[in-house]
Design goal:
By secondary structure, the chain is mostly beta strands. The chain folds into two domains: 1-35; 36-340, 7 Propeller (Methylamine Dehydrogenase, Chain H). It has one helix spanning 2-33; strands at 38-40, 48-54, 57-62, 67-71, 76-81, 89-94, 99-103, 109-114, 117-122, 132-138, 141-149, 152-158, 166-167, 178-179, 188-190, 196-199, 201-202, 206-210, 218-221, 230-237, 243-249, 260-263, 271-272, 283-287, 290-295, 298-302, 310-313, 320-323, 326-331, 335-340. The strands form eight sheets. It has a four-stranded antiparallel beta sheet, with no helix packed on it. A four-stranded antiparallel beta sheet has the order 2-3-4-5, with no helix packed on it.
Length: 343
């Protein structure tokens, strides 16, 4: 009995010690990052969900359809384009030769640009009436996820760097009230020439994967609560086996329970994080062995592949990316914030 009591006492004090250490670590990052520099790049009435970085240039796709380019060497920015026919940019990705900015709105549309500026529009008759959620590339292979039409997800791909797009041969049926969230353009992933992934939310949350370029799909249900604003918002894989999905309910940004999951088997099964982020997260990003996730009440990080998360910064953020040892996080009012990456 004495041994048992001693063990329990040790466990209690060990737990308290670990909790104190965790709080101390959290306070350290929060305090340091409260003074991280903020860059104003655009109109104070806009914000950026689309974020792409290429050789010292930060591309920001905005809520008013404008695309800005910021040079990290000169710290100078410029407006790349703003056309009335482009209403909102929610994702920016690149093939080998071009950068593609994706419009989310009544009709699906891509803007093709390069380092010199806009090149043209990519539009197809069958894209009319489709709300695009995200785009991704791996080399010249690209994949677009659109909301369900006629009970099936709208899926398109390219094999030639975005010159030509075709509908995927197969498309999963969507559960009533199931769709995708265009929060940061990170709910899709092209792993290789034939493997695409995407996630959904709403009244049913699922992880979908094809290994034959969209001909057939496998589905794994994700244990998010059902709800119109609830589910999987963002996905990031560090390799073919280890990945993280974040989300939750953006109307209740501080609700932590069942907001984050991780996989060690390539998406066949998903486990709940032991210590999740501080609530709803719209984007998860991996760099230098660390996962970062941002949302309405801050940024958190995980150094053990999504099992446990620690607070990194306070504030409201939309998207994440990195450049030269720095984490870039977009904010409201035409701003982004720059943090030092964890070493």
């Amino acid at each position: 009995m004495k041994i048992l009591i001693s063990a329990l006492i040790c466990s209690v004090f060990l737990g308290i010690d670990l909790d104190v250490n965790a709080q101390s670590s959290t306070k350290k990052y929060i305090k340091k990052n409260s003074s991280a520099p903020i860059t104003v790049y655009g109109d104070s009435n806009t914000y950026s969900r689309g974020l792409y970085i290429d050789t010292g240039l930060i591309y920001l796709g905005n809520s008013n359809g404008a695309i800005f380019q910021h040079d990290t060497d000169t710290e100078q920015g410029e407006l790349v384009l703003k056309f009335p026919r482009v209403t909102e940019i929610r994702d920016i990705e690149s093939s080998r030769d071009y950068i593609f900015a994706m419009q989310s709105g009544t009709d699906g549309k891509l803007v093709k640009i390069n380092r010199q500026g806009p090149v043209g529009f990519v539009e197809y008759p069958e894209w009319k009436g489709i709300f695009f959620d995200a785009i991704d590339f791996s080399g010249d292979v690209g994949f677009i996820l659109g909301d369900p039409v006629g009970g099936k997800f709208s899926l398109f791909h390219t094999k030639d760097g975005g010159q030509n797009w075709t509908r995927c041969e197969g498309a999963p049926s969507a559960y009533k009230g199931e769709a995708a969230f265009a929060a940061s353009g990170t709910n899709v992933r092209v792993m290789n020439d034939s493997t695409y992934m995407f996630i959904s939310g709403g009244m049913r949350s699922n992880y979908y994967c094809t290994k034959n370029s969209g001909k057939t799909w496998t589905k794994v249900e994700l244990p998010f609560y059902p709800g119109e604003t609830i589910g999987a918002y963002s996905m990031c894989f560090m390799d073919e086996k280890i990945g993280v999905i974040v989300g939750g309910d953006y109307t209740q940004p501080s609700l932590k329970m069942n907001s984050t999951y991780y996989t060690y088997d390539g998406g066949k099964s998903w486990m709940n994080s032991m210590y999740p982020p501080r609530g709803y997260r719209s984007c998860v990003y991996f760099v230098n062995g660390v996962f970062y996730a941002c949302g309405k009440n801050g940024i958190d990080f995980s150094m053990n592949n999504g099992k446990e998360w620690t607070a990194f910064a306070d504030g409201a953020y939309f998207s994440l990316n990195s450049i030269e040892g720095k984490l870039i996080a977009t904010m409201k009012h035409g701003k982004f914030k720059t943090f030092d990456l964890i070493k």
